Amino acid sequence: QEEAQAIDQELFTEYKFSVDQLMELAGLSCATAIAKAYPPSSFTTSQPAVLVLCGPGNNGGDGLVCARHLKMFGYDPTVYYPKRPNKPLFEGLTTQCQKMDIPFLPEFPAEAALIDELYGLVVDAIFGFSFKGAVREPFSSILSTLERITVPIASIDIPSGWDVEKGKADGLQPDMLISLTAPKKAAMHFTGRYHFLGGRFVPTALQEKYALNLPPYPGTDCVLQLT
Amino acid sequence: PASSRQAFPLPSLPRKQPTVLVVCGPAQNGAIGLVCARHLRIFDYEPTIFYPKRSPDPLYRDFTTQCEKMDIPFLSYLPTEVQLINDAYNAVVDAVLGAEAGEGREPCAAILATLKHIRIPIISLDVPSGWDVEAGSSGGISPDVLVSLSAPKQCARHFLGRQHFVAGRFLPYDVQKKFELNPPEYPGTECVVALRAPR
């Protein structure tokens, strides 16, 4: 977890990347990976409807970017964003989604069966690699519901609620994980079908410094399928 | 534009090293060139940048830092000896002027004068530099590849090069409709789409 935070810090302070830049590239990777694993034609719902659950931090921001690109790719995303930071970045991302006719649910569909009926996929953009400690409401109820749905879950970077290094045996079991920048230790406990790498912006020098040993991305793709 | 990502075709390059010269002008088109250079580096090309007139805009200065920190060299001058450019690079990315300007002042005019004579392919971003954004150009540079951003500009009708791409897959549907843009359909998750070749 510390290493991931150190890499991020270097990208911001040494390389002068803005959070906006990296978040945009991260969110685009997530949407691209999702489109590869769950193409619109694979949905059993009449429209390729996707529920995107956005948490209170940067992982939520990644989710907003992802939702916007999913819309560009022909999906029907809906966002649930209960705790919104008071910062221009997140307000901007929210406006972009709203202006693209992406609905924001006023409340969370608390019945697992309802989610299963309305959506073909749920994107978990609740907590990321900075997550520590206990899960507070409304997220702990959301995570309980997610543990009961049958439609696939795609988690951004870390399955929400998992310890960033140790995982969580009785927690969320997503079908897909999109690791951003590099897989975190928790990814070793991932047992879903699809593991993608995204966030193709780490300069070679940084990769070497932190011995990331990332496999090469194919061509100009912004995602790499690991499993 | 901050997140505008240019995906370039990957032709087989004639030189052993995949060197590319990226010429960046003083305004937004140049900034897009900086972002492009950084992604080319990630894609394992060897870009070199010529950026004589740097914008004071903090966003664009950060783009410059990102490139520098990724070991992308910045030339201190552009050789007027055209053969030097032809020999050192496989292609030139023209990110000098966009839709915002005409021939431009120095140093753009001098750069364009040199670019008119190179033999390696030129890839122009959005508008071939020096072209009038609507009328095109007589006697200006002749790019091999044009990457139109968001939608082709009027002058693209005069483009005679080999490949024309549209990139910048971020226009919301209602903006497209409002301005009657009719952009082509992007395939799958691609951020670039090739238009039918002009010849």
Automatic annotation (TrEMBL), chain A:
Sorted keywords for this record are: Isomerase, Metal-binding, Mitochondrion, NAD, NADP, Nucleotide-binding, Potassium, Secreted, Transit peptide
SUPFAM superfamilies membership = YjeF N-terminal domain-like
**What Pfam families is this protein classified in?**
YjeF_N
In Swiss-Prot or TrEMBL terms, this protein is called NAD(P)H-hydrate epimerase
Q: What residue ranges carry the coiled-coil annotation?
A: none
Lineage summary: Eukaryota, Metazoa, Chordata, Craniata, Vertebrata
**Top-level EC class:** isomerase
Catalysed conversion reaction? (6R)-NADPHX = (6S)-NADPHX; (6R)-NADHX = (6S)-NADHX
What EC number(s) does the entry state?
Answer: 5.1.99.6
User: What Gene Ontology cellular-component terms does the record carry?
Assistant: mitochondrion
Q: Where is the YjeF N-terminal domain?
A: 4-214
The family database entries (InterPro entries) matched by this protein are listed as: YjeF_N_dom, YjeF_N_dom_sf, YJEFN_prot_NAXE-like
Q: Name one GO molecular function term.
A: NAD(P)HX epimerase activity
Report if keyword Isomerase is assigned. Answer: yes
UniProt organism field: Fregata magnificens (Magnificent frigatebird)
Automatic annotation (TrEMBL), chain B:
InterPro entries in alphabetical order: YjeF_N_dom, YjeF_N_dom_sf, YJEFN_prot_NAXE-like
Q: Name one GO molecular function term.
A: NAD(P)HX epimerase activity
By its UniProt entry, which Pfam families does this protein fall under?
YjeF_N
Q: Give an example GO cellular component term for this record.
A: mitochondrion
The YjeF N-terminal domain sits at: 1-183
Please name the PANTHER family in this protein's record. NAD(P)H-HYDRATE EPIMERASE, YJEF N-TERMINAL DOMAIN-CONTAINING PROTEIN 3
What protein does this entry describe? ApoA-I-binding protein 2
